[in-house]
Write a structure and sequence with these properties.
Blueprint: H1 2-6, H2 8-33, E1 40-45, E2 50-55, E3 62-64, E4 67-78, E5 87-95, H3 97-109, H4 116-121, E6 127-130, E7 138-139, H5 143-154, E8 162-163
Length: 166
């Protein structure tokens, strides 16, 4: 309290500086919170049979060096850490042509502020799934699709596999 009485101008300057810093922090935080963090998801090249990372803004199927529409989303899990030796591909996902157009339009309308995962939640009927070992695609919501998803999660041999991202 003695400091405040002894140097009132210095105290006022310190308080004004702290206020300016706080307002600046809030402005910067507000600007950054409107920007979506960029992320990668696992994709699978069905022709080359290899896993690769791609932007979570990619709407499968995507083009790869192997050819047009050969990249699909891979649901990758692990029973331990997500190292290359312990992770496994549970199943693959892609969208129907109508679903792909709808998701791309939705993402364009919202300025790509949300990744593919949020868009897919609104269109579950448009998601097709298959096992990496099989060529047949099934609607995810169908009994066959649910069998593919459930069997894929059990591949690791643990009751609660955890999802892996690149």
């Amino acid at each position: 309290m003695d400091f405040l009485n002894r140097w009132p101008k210095t105290t006022g300057l310190i308080a004004a500086g702290a206020s300016i810093l706080a307002v600046g922090f809030l402005i910067i935080h507000s600007i950054r919170s409107n920007q979506r963090p960029k992320g990668d998801l696992w994709f699978y090249d069905v022709k080359a049979k290899r896993l690769f990372p791609a932007s979570d803004l990619s709407v499968p199927p995507i083009d790869t060096p192997s050819g047009s529409r050969t990249g699909v989303r891979a649901q990758v899990f692990s029973c331990g850490d997500c190292s290359e030796s312990s992770r496994f591909i549970a199943y693959l996902e892609m969208l129907t042509p109508d679903g792909k157009r709808a998701v791309e339009a939705q993402m364009k309308n919202n300025g790509s502020r949300t990744g593919i995962g949020f868009a897919l939640e609104k269109l579950p009927y448009a998601v097709l799934v298959r096992s990496p070992e099989d060529d047949a695609w099934y609607p995810q919501s169908s009994p066959e699709g649910q069998t593919v998803v459930q069997a894929g999660r059990l591949k690791g041999g643990c009751p609660h596999p955890r999802p892996c991202v690149p």
